[in-house]
Write a structure and sequence with these properties.
Largest sheet: 4 strands, antiparallel
Structural class: alpha+beta
Distance between the termini: 49 Å
Number of strands: 6
Order of helices and strands: HHHHEEHHEHEEHE
Shape: elongated
Strand content: 15-25%
Number of domains: 2
């Protein structure tokens, strides 16, 4: 049904196009939906790969997978040639999400997520709807359920941004240093900001949930510190 002229792209008649692309809309819509759902989870956690990124990756992988067999033709022995290059392309995209921050690496989970999202898109493009939906559910369970279990069971180190407020920055710094020494954690750079008589000291701590709880309790008990605020670190993955 396909006509190939030397030096020209493949061409299809209206009838051929209707026959070859029948049902593709459903595949692409499902891919966009599943990618968008995973993207909402990433957007909720303020990650670099959000709704649009995951939606487009899943959609694009589905379309490339579908076109791979169509362009190759029924008699081709390599109908997955285009689809096979998706893996390499997503690898380059995922590498751009990995960052080296100070003494740790972040973005590995985001890179692995776009890799998994691309595979879900390929499943949609191949018409494998049940495996695609099941895989999307597994990805969400891994991102939310497993991540929560890691923190609750103190299996995962994660960073938290601390902000100490008080009157005397020297006494506050000393109290923070002593609390970190008791935790056997190294204190990183302190960022100081003065607003009138109020002094703010900000620092980041990379530890387990139990360590964070102990540190917050120690800092709140210090007479040199009036208030301790904690914020999630957007760079944490």
């Amino acid at each position: 049904m396909m006509i190939e002229a030397p030096g020209h792209m493949l061409s299809f008649s209206a009838l051929e196009e209707a026959v070859l692309t029948g049902g593709v809309a459903g595949r692409l819509l499902l891919a966009a939906f599943l990618g968008g759902v995973i993207g909402i989870d990433r957007e909720y956690h303020h990650k670099a790969s959000g709704v649009r990124t995951n939606l487009l990756i899943c959609f694009g992988a589905a379309l490339f997978t579908f076109l791979s067999s169509v362009i190759a033709g029924e008699n081709s022995t390599n109908r997955g040639q285009i689809a096979s290059n998706i893996v390499q392309g997503i690898g380059f995209l995922g590498a751009g999400l990995i960052l080296h921050n100070r003494d740790r690496i972040s973005g590995l989970t985001s890179a692995a997520t776009v890799w998994a999202v691309a595979s879900i898109g390929m499943a949609c493009g191949a018409g494998l709807y049940i495996p695609a939906v099941f895989s999307a559910v597994l990805v969400l369970v891994a991102l939310e359920g497993v991540g929560l279990l890691e923190r609750k069971a103190n299996l995962k180190l994660y960073s938290v941004l601390y902000e100490a407020r008080g009157r005397d920055p020297v006494k506050m710094s000393t109290a923070i240093l002593h609390a970190m020494d008791k935790m056997k954690r190294r204190l990183g750079p302190l960022e100081q900001q003065n607003i009138g008589e109020l002094n703010r000291l900000c620092f980041t701590v990379f530890a387990t949930r139990k360590m964070h709880d102990r540190l917050q309790a120690a800092l709140n008990a210090s007479p040199a510190i009036d208030e301790i605020l904690v914020f999630p670190n957007v760079e944490d993955d």
